[in-house]
Structure formats: structure tokens, C-alpha cells
Amino acid sequence: MAVDGTMFCLAGEPRYEVNSFGAGHNYSVAMFVPYRYNKNISNACYFNALDFKKAQKSLLKRSPDKNQNPEPNGGNRIEVLIPEAVKCNPLLDHVA
Questions:
Q1: Residue 4, domain member (yes or no)
Q2: Are 82 and 38 in contact (CB under 8 A)?
Q3: Is 90 exceeded by the pLDDT of residue 24?
Q4: Per the structure, how many domains does the chain have?
């Protein structure tokens, strides 16, 4: 759908996903903003748009580098304009 020349599409609610990659002492942890769940990833890895601080804590807890800076680099922070509109509940919604 186009509104005033700008294209829009229907998308799921954004959420935070904390994920680790690799194995042993050769792994890293990252935080993403997906719009859907991945059935191969546990619901404990997802946090709703209001739970940025919880996602940060999870990132630091899982990170092998305890000096990692958990602040987003511009694109990883969800700006919530209407908090009561956030409906995502990963623990109940996502069944892996």
C-alpha cells in the first residue's frame, strides 16, 4: 500500500532476540530485532519491545567478553511510541 508516495507493508511486532554463535571458547553473542519468531530458537532468547534492559542483561550474561558494550549501535533499539500497543509475549506466544 502506498501513502503519499511512501510504500508500507504489514509486518509483525518487533522484538529483541539474543543469540549466540559458535562453540567452546570461540563464540560470540549478538542482539537482533526480528519481526517474527524462529522455531529453532528458544522463547527464552526473545524479549518484547519494552524489555530492552532484560535483553541487555541476557546479552551480558551469555557473553564470553564481560567487557562487551551492550549499548546498541543505532539500529538495534526499538522506539516504543505507544507502550500499551506492545502485545508480544515471547514466553507464551512462541512455542519452539
A1: no
A2: no
A3: no
A4: 1
